[in-house]
Amino acid sequence: MNDEKPVREPIAEDARIDALEKRLKAAREREDERNRPKASGTDANYRSGNRVLADLLGGILGGSLIGYAFDALVGTLPWGLLVGLFLGIGVAFRNIIRGASTAPEETE
């Protein structure tokens, strides 16, 4: 074992270091609060607009694709596509109305 003393003695606690650590901690907390995304305002409106657009496009394209696939299998070319298109539009509007009637989610 090594019986030599350490080269430096441990530094005693200093009031200035404690004050600096408190100020750094407070500054980090303020910065975290400032950078935290807000659940309301422009970001929430942008997200809800993107959701409406995705529901509308997904319903229309999905219904059209399913209707066209049904037509390709059965051989009733325009009718399955039209029925699938209108069903997709109905599902899209139902999703949009349901999403608009619920309260927005709170994120932290």
Output the keywords.
single chain; 108 residues; mainly alpha; 73% helix; elongated
Protein model, in words:
It is a single chain. Helix 2 packs antiparallel against helix 3 (77-101). The protein is 73% helix and 0% strand. It has helices at 15-35, 42-74, 77-101. It starts with 14 loop residues before the first helix and ends in a 7-residue tail after the last helix. It has a domain at 40-101. It is mainly alpha-helical.
Give the DSSP E fraction (strand runs of 2 or more residues).
under 5%
What gross morphology would you assign?
A: elongated
Please give the radius of gyration in angstroms.
31 Å
Total beta strands: 0
Secondary structure class reads mainly alpha
What is the arithmetic mean of pLDDT?
85
Roughly what percent helix? over 70%
User: How is the biggest beta sheet arranged?
Assistant: none
Distance between the termini: 53 Å
Low-confidence stretches: none
What is the element string, with H for helices and E for strands?
HHH
Count helical runs.
3
